[in-house]
Each structure stands twice: as C-alpha cells, then as structure tokens.
Write a sequence for this structure.
C-alpha cells in the first residue's frame, strides 16, 4: 500500500466520521437538540461565572495588597514617631533645666549627650546609620569631597576630616558625608619653590 493510499484512507475515515456525526444530529429529535443546546448554554454560563468570580477575586486581592501596603507605611511612621517621643521629652526637660536658676554648663552638656544617644538609638532601630569615614579611603559613592589638602601624614585620597556626617538607611545613602581629602604633598626646593623633579616623579606615579 502506498502513502497516497494511506492518506486517502485516513481522509475517508475522517469524512465518514463527520458524516456519521451529521447523520446522528439529523436523527435527533427537536427535544433532544434543545436539550443539547441547553446543556451547552449551561456550560458556557458556568465558564462565564467562573471568569467573573476569578476577576473579582483578583481585584479583591489587589485592593487588599494596596491596603496592607498603606497600613505598613502608616505603621512604620507610627513606630518611628513613638521612638522619637522620648527624645522630644528629653529635649524639653533639658531646655527647662538649662533655663533653671543655678544650671551649670556641665549639666547642660550631659543632658545634651544623653539626648543625642537616645536619638541615635531610636534611628538605629529603623536602619539609619551614620557615615563618619575619618581616616578611611575616599569613596565617592558615600563621600562628597569639599576640599583637598596636602598631607605628609596621610595616604593620598584619604579622608582627613569629616565636616558633616552622612547617613544611610538600610545601606542606601540618604546624605553623603562632606569630607576633606588628602592629596600628595609637593616637594619643594631650598628656595621654597616646587621641586620640578619631585613633581615629575609624582606625575609619573
């Protein structure tokens, strides 16, 4: 048997099956056709209802997620405020103590230091950390160089002084540290002028 014969037999079988199905439908009564139609409509309605139900569930899930996210932000702010309230109380007591008769500078200093410790402890609970890189290599990702000074006591590009601390929150920078950075000292000759030989060596380096 050739391939053409096989293909023809397959085609004939499909046509025969379709013809038989059509013949079966033709043999059905009106009542049976109506029953099949009602069954098909019922299944279509069930599928449509399932689709609407799934869509409603997805919308409810989205709304619940948005509500939970909003509440999470509100709750975080509420916790942060609660942690700051003792700091505010301490500042108010410190201000009152400083204004009292007989208050000493030492008492004011101690009160200020205590309040600062409370504040740092409060922000630390929320992942806020100070960036104080004195003596560390300059890092442009966390430091902002305000000036550069020659220093024979520091390696080049070392933070010599921190003018203002930086801060991160959960390792994300929210303010860079403002720093003074060291640069190589230029050698000078006996007359006080720059030593060209030393300068050339630095440039080649």
């Amino acid at each position: 048997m050739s391939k053409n014969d096989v293909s023809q037999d397959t085609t004939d079988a499909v046509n025969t099956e379709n013809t038989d199905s059509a013949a079966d439908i033709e043999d059905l009564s009106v009542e049976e056709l109506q029953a099949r139609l009602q069954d098909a409509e019922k299944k279509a309605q069930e599928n449509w209802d399932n689709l609407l139900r799934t869509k409603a569930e997805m919308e409810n899930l989205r709304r619940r997620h948005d509500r939970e996210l909003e509440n999470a932000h509100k709750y975080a702010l509420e916790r942060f405020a609660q942690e700051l309230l003792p700091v505010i109380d301490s500042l108010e007591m410190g201000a009152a103590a400083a204004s009292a008769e007989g208050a000493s500078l030492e008492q004011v200093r101690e009160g200020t230091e205590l309040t600062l410790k409370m504040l740092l402890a409060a922000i630390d609970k929320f992942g806020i950390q100070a960036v104080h890189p004195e003596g560390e290599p300059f890092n442009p990702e966390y430091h902002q160089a305000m000036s550069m000074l020659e220093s024979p006591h520091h390696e080049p590009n070392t933070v010599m002084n921190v003018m203002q601390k930086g801060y991160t929150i959960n390792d994300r920078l929210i303010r860079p540290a403002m720093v003074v950075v060291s640069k190589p000292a230029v050698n000078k000759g006996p007359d006080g002028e720059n030593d060209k030989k030393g300068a050339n060596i630095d440039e080649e380096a």
In short: The helical segments are 3-27, 30-99, 105-124, 196-204. Strands lie at 128-131, 143-150, 159-164, 166-169, 172-175, 177-183.
